[in-house]
Amino acid sequence: MQELPRRGLLVGVTAVASMLGGASVPAVAQPQSPAQAKPPGTARAELREPVVLASKDGVLEVRLSARQGEAKLDTVATPVKNFLLFEYELVRGTASDGRKSGKNLYPAPTLQVFPGERLVVHFENGLSGLTIRDFYSPAYIANDKTVPIYPEQLAESPLNLHTHGLHVSPKGNADNVMLHMPAGTSNTYTYDIPKEHPQGSYWYHSHLHMLTTAHVYFGMVGLLAIGRLDGGLPVVTEKRIPIRNMVLQYNYVFDRAGGSAQLNNPYWPQFVSTITPPRDGELAKGTYRPLLAPTNFTETSKGTRYATVWYAGPLSINNRRGAFQYIPTNLMSFAAADGRTDMDMPADPSLPDDKRDMQFTVNGQFQPVVRSKPGQTEIWVLSNVSDIAYINVQLTETATGRHPPIAIVGQDGEPYGAVEHPPTDNGTRLLIPPASRFAIAVTMPAKGDLVLEMPDRGGGARTMTMPGILYTNDGSENPPAVLGSLTVLPSAISYADGFFVFPTQVLARATAPQGSGPGVTVPFAKGQKLGGRTPFADLSRATPDVTRKIMIRGGFLNDLVTKSDAKSFTYAFDGAAFPNMPMIQARLGSIEEWQFLNHNNDEHPIHVHVNDFQVTAYHDPTVGLRTGPDKFFVDNANVPAPVMMPDETVVQPGYMAMRTRFDDFIGLYVMHCHRLNHEDNGLMALVNVIPAVSAYAVVVPGGGGKATTVRVLDGNGDRPIATVTPFPGYEGSVSVALGDLDGDGVLDLVVGAGKDHAPEVIAYSGRAQGGKAAYSTELARFQAFGSDARGGISVAAAQIDGATSDNIIVGSGPGIASEIKVYGARLPKPGMVPPLFTSFAPFAGDSSGITLATGFVDFSTGRNSIVAAPGSGSAAEVKVFVFPLLKQIGDTPVTSPQPATTVSLKPFGDDYRGGVSLATGWLAGNLGGAKRIVVGQLADGAQVKVYSSGSALDGGPAMYLHNPAHHQHADFREIANFAPFEGTGGVRVATTSTTTGADLLVSGVSAQGVASVARYDFARPDPKATTLQAVKLADVTSAGAIGSAPAPIAGD
Questions:
Q1: Cβ-based neighbours of 976, under 8 Å, separated by 6 or more
Q2: Hey, how many other C-beta atoms are within 10 angstroms of the C-beta on 74?
Q3: Which of 863, 854, 859, 871 is nearest to 933 (CA)?
Q4: Which residue(s) pair with 620 in the sheet?
């Protein structure tokens, strides 16, 4: 493959203009579209690219600050207020407009880096002091509370940052969407783009669960270009084909035609409460509350009208409020009830398009003009960055009315191997679900214009009529209203997704300036090989290592909330909303097949973070369409709606099957529906990619001249992998832990010296390399405390400092002051002490030693926690510590950050002082939630207790009852308690991961006084049980435990 030019043919307007070979031409009057005519003489601006911030010397470093702001829309005379937008400051890189900073940009600036480069984003949350009335809390109302008639306004908002589609690590400060950034805080995200990363169109947006929809709709989105948006296709380089970046969004400005300049939330009428229907005369007098009208309705001119779908009373499937929210008011007609024709509101299709209240835009512009040449072939990259809108497009040649087939050359940031056509309408219509991006090749006709439009559905589509309400502004605070019916004709509907319907509209028009010479025509025929660099590998012929069937449902499924709150309609995978759905835990290098069966009336575009996938089968039973296997990878694919009876009984579910191979990264991320209102309301699942081998370690004590060894075993089958002698000649016990210290996706071993040995730490690579076996190559060797600290140390490993590999964590032993040290993720050569990230005193005044564990045990910050307890002789108090790693905006970074204490537990009561062992893991992973904390007695018994911060055992989930602006506190409760061994000799605990969660490993002493290791699972005894029962799976004879004391063990 030839090396493609690194710069040129990119996404900037300058590059496009130079390729077209001419200066810009002023906008001219537009001829009428054959599909959607508009009054003659209406001029549109020329298509502009968003500001492009590009890398310099391999790095793009930028500060993005989220603020309430106002955007300039070309269909409103003054800047439109109530947007949430990103300001930027360029720290390192170049800007297409030559400026170092900018604000109030809609869409946000495009960030451009190339494969092998680094993107650094200093991300600031300035979302405080907000004054947007219809930016509201999505929190559900609890069973014992009354639903307010209007949802609570948010005066501030948390957020985070997601790089949609990027193949980068989900750990630390990379693409970690678990992070919770309160208003006023900042975080630095660092993304190292792999050298083999596909070139193409990606995007970035806030991904704060429960608020993702609002954040995206109100404007916090921008394009992320990895290299060239076309995917670096050779023919594009050779023929110098122009590339157009077209970011597709929508905005709703009520009474735009009357001069209003306020962005309105189209969801508002859905989530006001009409549980109590109006009494006689209340609507006519305007005294019924709530008003379903926009929040600024009474500020409009007298006589202004607003119509929407009506429903009142107990919630049911008949509540269709919001179904028409994307249809411009002028394309709806209202007929008043009881024959009151004087109150009717006819549709007004003659209203100029630019006066519509609901508008779909390209790069923030309404119906922009693309300047090209007759016969010129171009690449248009269509990126649907809207929150939930389906954009169904076709091309129309105005001179002939012909709709040419749409030649797709790439999707979701990856080039195709060959040209494809859409599977419907003879390839002339392309459905772009929310979050999908398509690169298409288009050719200007020899005569006339080429129109990109959202056409009507055709094919016998029916008129849609629903109960409606019409408000009239009479100049008072009590606008009168009348009930009736609201109708939308088929000619106004471009798509219906099962609940919402979307309008017809021209999106853009390509035209040739008068006197233009012919352009360069390049054929892109279906099946034509493209020769680009693509990571696609056909998985349809492979045998999946794991197959999962995933059911999609919707309903009032949260048992902690009232069914009178319309906001609480939940969407769920396998009957449980995030985070309580069954854990998806995949092994690095494995192939999995996920089969989605849709029993909910809506369609669902499924997006998987970090890892692309291949759609292997698709069946839309509503139209009989079957496709697959596709010959390309995507990060977003639609699950079609089912065939349903009027009562929503499913006759035949929609179906989509996908396969993916987890090639690159371990770590925790998510899969979800990218109709973001569904994601916010539960349709999201945790995906945790674990190493190919879930290694665990068992310490075999020395004696009689034989040194202590550590046996490393494969958790899948308990196969011995290696035996390590960390301290030759030392016969005492040691501490062990496993983690990915060098970021290669393989678990490494960390060993800490025990009593009467210098406080030395050794780390071994888990990868066989250079002719050396696994766990034989040292990664680190250093002394953590002074040489006189010979009470024995404890070790752990987890990602703490924001990097993408794990940190070594060391706890002090008996005899010195309680201290935990966290070492930086970058390890020096063995023999040198790694740089210290931080240290802290977990138990002030204590010197009994420390027991350690680590893991993602709650959702309060999105970070791993350090779980610690003091040693024998002190009260056994278990504390959970976390480093949020956030700073206040404008503050300088802290050189030695200190943790927050999440929770403190005393599992065995105030008087127990025998010491504990600790572990974390996804026990009973089918119940979702975060990792459990496991605590075992080291003396005076052999009890094991399991604690959880929430799972399906608790119903709910409870997180949806909390205003996301209020930082969520983690509450842990005991969910299991058992004694795996008889006697009082104590136990040690660890976990080992499986593809559904984790098993518990327990080291103890049998009734015969023999040390052994046993493996346990946990089961819910009945569907309503709130605790778990331990189920013994096996004794692990291969662990090689010997002696008369529980062997120290560690898992992943």
A1: 923, 944, 945, 946, 1018, 1027, 1028, 1029, 1030
A2: 16
A3: 854
A4: 625
The per-residue pLDDT for range 99-127, each reduced to its tens digit, is 999 999 999 999 999 999 999 999 999 99
Distances (CA, A) of 1025 to 951, 955, 1020: 12, 10, 6
Decide: helix, strand or coil at residue 169: coil
- Is residue 798 within 8 Å of residue 807, measured between CB atoms? yes
Q: What is the mean pLDDT of residues 157-169?
A: 97
- Cβ(677)–Cβ(1030) under 8 Å? no
| pLDDT > 50? residue 410 | yes
Q: Whole-angstrom Cα distance, residue 581 to residue 952? A: 8
- Secondary structure of 570-610 in HEC code, one letter for each residue: EEEECCECCCCCCCEEEECCCEEEEEEEECCCCCEEEEECC
DSSP run (H or E) holding 243: strand 243-252
DSSP labels, 387-404: SS--EEEEEEETTT---P
Residue where the block lists tokens 């269909």: 75
Nearest to 68 by CA among 185, 160, 154: 154
Query: CA 500 to CA 391: how far, in whole Å?
Result: 12
Q: Tell me the two tokens of residue 321.
A: 């409020």
Q: Exposed (0-12), middle (13-18) or buried (19+): which is 543, by Cβ within 10 Å?
A: exposed
CA distance 585 to 946: 20
DSSP, collapsed to helix, strand or coil, labels residue 77 as coil
Dump pLDDT digits (tens) for 926-984: 999 999 999 999 999 999 999 999 999 999 999 999 999 986 788 999 999 999 998 77
The model's confidence at residue 17, banded by pLDDT at 50, 70 and 90, is very low
Q: Which residues share a beta bridge with 782? A: 761
CA dihedral sign of residues 992, 993, 994, 998: positive
Q: What is the DSSP letter of 875?
A: -
Q: What are the pLDDT digits (tens) for 859-900?
A: 999 999 999 999 999 999 999 999 999 999 998 888 889 999
User: Quick one: tokens of 633?
Assistant: 């990878």
pTM above 0.70, yes or no: yes
Q: Are 465 and 337 a contacting pair, CB within 8 Å?
A: no
pLDDT of residue 1 exceeding 70:
no
**Who contacts 822 (Cβ-Cβ below 8 Å, separation ≥6)?**
800, 801, 807, 808, 809, 836, 837, 838, 839, 866, 883
Give alpha helix (H) positions in 252-361.
Answer: 268-271, 282-285
What is the identity of the amino acid at 993?
Answer: S
* Mean pLDDT for the chain overall: 93
- Predicted confidence (pLDDT) per residue in 526-553, tens digit: 999 999 999 999 999 999 999 999 999 9
| Mean pLDDT computed over 194-222 | 97
Structure tokens at 196: 């083999």
Residue type, 826: R
Enter the DSSP assignment of 291: -
Which tokens sit at 2?
Answer: 């030839």
- What pLDDT sits at residue 155? 97
- 533 contacts 1 by C-beta, under 8 angstroms: yes
State whether residue 355 is helix, strand or coil: helix
At 1050 the three-state DSSP class reads strand
Residue 585 corresponds to which tokens in the numbers above? 């835990």
DSSP state of 754: -
Q: Do residues 6 and 228 touch, judged by C-beta distance below 8 A? A: no
Average pLDDT over every residue of 459-485: 94
Where b means 16+ CB within 10 Å and e means fewer, 892-904 reads eeeeebebeebbe
Residues near 167 by beta carbon (within 8 Å), at least 6 away in sequence:
194, 197, 198, 610, 611, 612, 664, 665
Q: What is the pLDDT of residues 218-262, one digit of tens each?
A: 999 999 999 999 999 999 999 999 999 999 999 999 999 999 999
